[in-house]
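Sanity check. The docking grid for magnesium ion depends on where the pocket ends up, so I'm generating a full predicted complex first rather than guessing from homology. Inputs follow.
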Amino acid sequence: MTTIAAPNQSSADAAAPEKKLTGGHLVAKALKNEGIDTIFTLCGGHIIDIYDGCLDEGIKIVDVRHEQVAAHAADGYARITGTMGCAVVTAGPGTTNAITGVANAFRAESPMLLIGGQAALSQHRMGGLQDLPHVDILRPITKFATSVPTTERAADFVAMAAREAYNGAFGPVYLEIPRDVLDRGIDPSAAVIPQPGRYRASTRSVGDPNDVQRLADILERAQRPVVLLGQQVWTCRGTDAAREFVERLNVPAYMNGAGRGTLPPDHPLNFQLTRRDAFEAADVIIVVGTPFDFRLRYGKSLKAPTVVQIDMSYATIGRNRDIDLGLVGDVGVILAAVTQASSANGGAAKARNAWVAQLREKENVAAQARLPKLLNDATPIHPYRLAYEIDRFLTDNSIFVGDGGDVVTFAGNVVRPKAPGLWMDPGPLGTLGVGTGFAMAAKLAQPQREVVALFGDGSFAMTGFDMQTAVRFGTPYIAIVGNNSYMNQIRCGQIQKYGKERGDVGNYLGDVDFEKFAHMLGFYGEAVRDPKEIRPALERAREAGTCAVINVWLDPDAYAPGTENQTMYK
Ligand SMILES: Cc1ncc(C[n+]2csc(CCOP(=O)(O)OP(=O)(O)O)c2C)c(N)n1
Ligand SMILES: [Mg+2]
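Predicted complex below; grid placement will be based on this.
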């Protein structure tokens, strides 16, 4: 940690007074030192000094129309870039609007920094404009939340927040900065400015080496192992390590969340439709970087005699279900170490060919049985058909964003990203409305890629107006609205419980022509009612090269199997 010298001092001006730096400039310097090149924001009088600092530091300012979108964009930007995302919002309602995005990042373990304004310290607890107890509100949904007490330490607190965001499993952090702390100018020599690369350590920890060897030994004996590769494989950029692990040890792999795409769709060890069978027949299940939450029925889905868990967070290992072995650290580094420790185990790996073949046979049977549903020609369009068309439309270069209820559940069973980092969903908070911020952030971070976002009609309407922000910033994406006129995923359970008449209550959205919304904002839009028209419409959207809305009318009486079984509540 050091203090900075006055800029461009020469002998001629050595005696000149130091140029004052405001808290806003110090915040921007610290953001730059952390590698943050973009902030997502909606303006307010409390935070203008940060913008001025960003101008000095060359940090891009992306101003949105709703703070929820700013927070989702920061979350999404972090996921795509691997660098902490940052949203800057004003005090009071600006901060409360951002809360859903922070909460989503919290459950998804996404490293983002929310900076929020606050009334001046000199007016503390006097009833200042937009004054709220932000830190108290944010604390339960962040890894770290605090107020910045002095201008001198504004940069130091940004560095502190970054350390906390990367501590264990990553997650969001919050800094409240009072208006006078941001506004006040100080001599640079009085400021604490941690230097890039010198205020936090590597997160690439291998954990306990004895346990690495124990897992290698377990795998030497395993006859029917499977591995579930979760989102932390992507967070840790452990794709190559995971792939080498499954290939060298010959272990069938299932993937969830951002772990999807770790293996390409045609990889012989990539399985999707037979997870339940595999978890029932396996003798060893290794769960990597995803918690035993509702998606694994709190661990009850894991039926094998030996269960191993690898996670970035010590607190996640062994939660909800006893385990036989737990390893904490960077999941990619751990997998690489296990592969290395297993290097003498070629014989054991080969002996598993029959197990792999048995699962492949089941996978093929399941895929064949489902194919007619995917090719369904019916009108109104079946959601399986839409999911099938999207899967075929996506290229090796397309990032897929899923934001909706049932329509995205269908897509989750069908759409197979071609590579890691090409799948974005909210994560375990299940937040509707993430897609607009995610899609914009994805295109901003990787302009060379195409971004295709699938929305429910309910979800799209939550944040969709910020497509106009994507237009303003030249970050076009294709929005596909799976339009069934209802909040179908909820409606399904309501009808099951209360019958049709009383089940259609509180979930009807009406028939909205979302393509006209696109026309209003000046970009490409069209409606699709015929399944054969899905592909040509998507092609036209691709060719348009602008933002596009393809409004696909879906059968409102088709529900995903998981929704019909209400598995998410079991
Ligand atoms: C912000 C938010 N509000 C409410 C819910 C509860 N919810 C889950 S799925 C769903 C229906 C979503 O409707 P739509 O986006 O149209 O998708 P569909 O299920 O109709 O395909 C709702 C309301 C949620 N997950 N997130
Ligand atoms: Mg809907």
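Relevant for the grid: The chain is about 40% helix and 15% strand.
Also worth noting: The first strand starts at residue 21 and ends at 22.
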